């Protein structure tokens, strides 16, 4: 059995198609006719644009607007003078041939992106490679990939799949894919989840371990592969596949169900999002609302702070799409493992215990106010609730609310409207807040428990460290006690309590959380339906 990173759930039984990358030899020969080389580059860029436009249209039809955005990003890259201009400069200054110029610029950009701390940004190096290789293929007059899959039940095995490769996979023939490299957040993994085909990535050398025509069983839940299985094993997995599919079909019936426990308590099951467009997947999976919008993603992946106007548009978009359903937006939680390239942060021994989230925002009201003003202005478009991350004491909440009041005054004097009924809450993710929950509940409108951090702080086990991951236990009695205290603290003051950490979607934890009286569960969109199923049986 071979094991990798399970990137998209499901089972597949089929035959291997080894996807070979088109090999183009790039010479280092210099050229005399610089103009001719620049022309070759220009026409390859134009051709690449046309090809990507076509792929984008196809993706839009088969996978929807959101997934087609990858190709919009590719088009932006092709139009970016810093990127393509650097290629021209290579030709002009170094007399490089066009292919070599593209290859050199690609390597420089890829190195910069791969060196970034943020995983999402690192994965974007794949987009740069994808676009550059297309330009090179067009200069060479070759076609970019060699997908000519004739047979049904094919499992594509590749070193890596570019977003455009993934978008071109024929769903009627390809039932799964496996790659040597990649992580759960690589575009191909995200696309596999949208296509709803099982995928396993990060398999290191799967392209060497299997050959064309091998029979494989792909278990996208465990992240395992069995090569040339015997009849008995095939039978076993056929049954697993069938029950997985039956269950998925069954779950769809719950999309419009308003979740209630057996005792009749209504419980909201909502989705966590990082980008405004993620809202669509929450809606498609029957989410009752948005329980956590991690706004720091609006600040990442760029070179400067998002303006008030940009943020206003992003919040308005989510509120409008969710109609009047609740949308909990968390104010900026930067620091810890999330850094901004354009914001200088102190070097700290323990960044998770340091200058992050509300601590940074209270210290930098200039940054904080831009976000608060955008939130207030967007509030008229839906059912907005705002929460502050990493609150450890009442004072921090009060200071944050003073800044909110300042923003309200400013907006009023400038003639802007906002909703007076916004609920203001806090994330309970520091043990001190959980212990003091009954006191804090007198002042705030709601709590949302952030177990990802609460667990690491309670058990002194870094959430990023593999070495101590065995200590990171959501069901540790101390963690459970703090959760219970938080929920009871909220209820003692007539306030509601939700949870937006990963634990909310953990099937084994849900019954306990229901028993404790948790009012709202928020999780990744794809977990919503299975969580609903568990809750209605609690
Ligand atoms: C949490 O800490 O549980 C949480 C939801 O926030 P984040 O994972 O963004 O720190
Ligand atoms: Mg947190």
TrEMBL record:
Query: What keywords would UniProt list here?
Result: Coiled coil, Cytoplasm, Kinase, Magnesium, Metal-binding, Phosphotransferase system, Pyruvate, Sugar transport, Transferase, Transport
Q: What positions does UniProt annotate as the active site of this protein?
A: 187 (tele-phosphohistidine intermediate), 500 (proton donor)
Q: Which residues form the PEP-utilising enzyme C-terminal domain?
A: 249-535
The EC number of this protein is 2.7.3.9
Question: What class does this enzyme belong to in the EC scheme?
Answer: transferase
Keyword Coiled coil in record: yes
Q: What positions belong to coiled-coil segments?
A: 31-58, 234-261
Subcellular localization is given as:
Cytoplasm
**InterPro entries per UniProt:** PEP-util_enz_mobile_dom (IPR008279), PEP-utilizing_PTS_enzyme (IPR050499), PEP_util_AS (IPR018274), PEP_util_C (IPR000121), PEP_util_CS (IPR023151), Phosphohistidine_dom_sf (IPR036637), PTS_EI (IPR024692), PTS_EI-like (IPR006318)
For the ligand (phosphoenolpyruvate), the binding residues are: 294, 330, 452-453, 463
| GO molecular function terms noted in the UniProt entry | kinase activity; metal ion binding; phosphoenolpyruvate-protein phosphotransferase activity
* SUPFAM superfamilies (UniProt xref): Enzyme I of the PEP:sugar phosphotransferase system HPr-binding (sub)domain (SSF47831), Phosphoenolpyruvate/pyruvate domain (SSF51621), Phosphohistidine domain (SSF52009)
Q: Does this UniProt record's set of keywords contain Transmembrane? A: no
GO CC annotation: cytoplasm
- Residue ranges annotated for the PEP-utilising enzyme mobile domain, each copy included: 151-223
Indicate the segments forming the Phosphotransferase system enzyme I N-terminal domain, all copies.
3-124
Family in the record: Belongs to the PEP-utilizing enzyme family.
**UniProt xrefs under PANTHER family:** PHOSPHOENOLPYRUVATE-PROTEIN PHOSPHOTRANSFERASE (PTHR46244)
Q: What is this protein called?
A: Phosphoenolpyruvate-protein phosphotransferase
């Amino acid at each position: 059995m071979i094991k990798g990173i399970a990137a998209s759930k499901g089972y597949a039984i089929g035959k291997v198609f080894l996807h070979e990358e088109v090999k183009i030899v790039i010479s280092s020969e210099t050229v005399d006719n610089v103009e001719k080389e620049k022309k070759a580059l220009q026409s390859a860029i134009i051709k690449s644009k046309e090809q990507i436009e076509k792929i984008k249209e196809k993706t839009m039809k088969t996978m929807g607007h959101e997934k087609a955005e990858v190709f919009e990003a590719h088009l932006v890259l092709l139009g970016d003078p810093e990127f393509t201009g650097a290629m021209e400069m290579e030709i002009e200054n170094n007399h490089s041939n066009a292919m070599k110029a593209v290859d050199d610029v690609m390597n420089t950009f890829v190195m910069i992106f791969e060196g970034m701390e943020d995983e999402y940004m690192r994965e974007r190096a794949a987009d740069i490679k994808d676009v550059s290789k297309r330009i090179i293929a067009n200069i060479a007059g070759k076609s970019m990939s060699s997908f000519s899959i004739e047979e049904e039940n094919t499992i594509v095995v590749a070193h890596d799949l570019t977003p455009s490769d993934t978008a071109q996979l024929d769903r009627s023939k390809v039932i799964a894919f496996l790659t040597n490299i990649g992580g759960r957040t690589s575009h191909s993994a995200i696309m596999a989840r949208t296509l709803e085909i099982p995928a396993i990535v990060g398999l290191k050398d799967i392209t060497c371990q299997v050959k064309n025509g091998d029979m494989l069983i792909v278990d996208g839940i465990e992240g395992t592969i069995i090569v040339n299985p015997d009849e008995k094993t095939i039978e076993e997995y056929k049954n697993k596949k069938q029950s997985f599919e039956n269950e998925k079909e069954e779950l769809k019936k719950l999309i419009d169900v308003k979740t209630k426990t057996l005792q009749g308590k209504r419980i909201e099951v909502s989705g966590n999002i990082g980008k405004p467009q993620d809202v669509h997947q929450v809606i498609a999976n029957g989410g009752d609302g948005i329980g956590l919008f991690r706004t720091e993603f609006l600040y990442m992946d760029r070179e400067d702070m998002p303006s008030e106007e940009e943020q206003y548009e992003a919040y308005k978009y989510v509120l409008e799409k969710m109609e009047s359903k609740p949308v909990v937006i968390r104010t900026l939680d930067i620091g810890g493992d999330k850094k901004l390239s354009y914001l200088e942060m102190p070097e700290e021994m323990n960044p998770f215990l340091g200058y992050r989230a509300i601590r940074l925002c209270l210290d930098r009201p200039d940054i904080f106010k831009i976000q608060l003003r955008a939130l207030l202005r967007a509030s008229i478009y839906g059912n907005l609730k705002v929460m502050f991350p990493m609150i450890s004491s009442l004072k921090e909440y009060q200071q944050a609310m003073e800044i909110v009041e300042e923003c309200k005054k400013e907006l009023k004097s400038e003639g802007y409207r906002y909703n007076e009924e916004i609920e203001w809450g806090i994330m309970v993710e520091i043990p001190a807040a959980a212990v003091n929950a009954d006191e804090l509940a007198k002042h705030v409108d709601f709590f949302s428990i952030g177990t990802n951090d609460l667990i690491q702080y309670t058990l002194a086990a870094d959430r990023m460290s593999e070495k101590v991951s065995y200590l990171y236990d959501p069901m540790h009695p101390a963690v459970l006690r703090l959760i219970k205290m938080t929920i009871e603290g909220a209820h003692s003051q007539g306030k509601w309590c939700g949870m937006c950490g990963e634990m909310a979607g953990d099937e084994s934890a849900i019954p306990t959380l229901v028993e404790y009286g948790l009012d709202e569960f928020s999780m990744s969109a794809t977990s919503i339906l299975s969580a609903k199923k568990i809750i209605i049986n609690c």
